[in-house]
Amino acid sequence: MKSAKSAWIGVGVLAFATLAFPARAHADESEMIETRGAPDRGRSAQNFEVEVRAALYQPQVDSDPTLHGTPYKDSFGSTMHFEVGMEFDWQAIRIPHVGTFGPGVSIGYTKMSGIAPRVDGLLPPSEETSSLEILPTYAVAVLRVDALMRDLHVPLVPYAKAGVGYALWRASNTAGTSVGPTGVVGEGHTFGTQFAVGLQFGLGVLDPHSAQQLDESTGINNTYIFGELMLSELTGIGQEHALYVGTNTFAFGLAFEF
Fold first, then answer.
1. Using alpha carbons only, what angle is made at residue 158 by residues 156 and 163, rounded to the nearest 5 degrees?
2. pTM over 0.70
3. Strands (DSSP E) along 178-242, which ranges?
4. What pLDDT was estimated at residue 187?
5. Residue 248: CB partners within 8 Å, gap ≥ 6?
6. Dihedral sign, Cα of residue 73, residue 165, residue 144, residue 27
């Protein structure tokens, strides 16, 4: 009888363990999603962010101390131009009650053109049009402080970025001689640094139900509008006679977390 009773007890313990283990595993999985995911339970996991951005852009060509005069301003004036771009950030690490930290990469494009001045500076401007195209790219570390939104339900997310930059540029004119405003011929590249601070506003607070539906149908966890102060010092790290094509400016756009 004792052996039979022991056998039944063993079967009962095994059955309980079999039922309890999947439940515990499911609970662990839910906790993982809650830890890495969105602020509210039921949201999908949150690991990445994509930004669609635009910025006012005026390259700092004339700030190069080796140049004489203001060749960029003489060619293109002082009007700000638009840069459009995208950024992809991986929220690799979540810091409890602070936010996320991880790497990000971005790419942009801007172009400016103007009537080229006469070389001697005495004759009226020529009919020749010069242009300068810039393709700036950056690799940065991003700290996004979303504790206000996750813990206090305040839809504001401040952030900071720091890293390195690299820009391809091409100078040309309508005569086909590919001479830029500083006398630089053809095309080249410039290295530098990138720093930025910004603030995001979570649009989900305006319509939480629609935000939940968007998450369920597309996996987009949060949507933001943002403004950013950007310091792009593309002045040629380790280079000689590099074209200064960075800018200190203000950027804005939309961001999507998923």
1. 155
2. yes
3. 187-202, 222-233
4. 86
5. 60, 230, 231, 232
6. positive
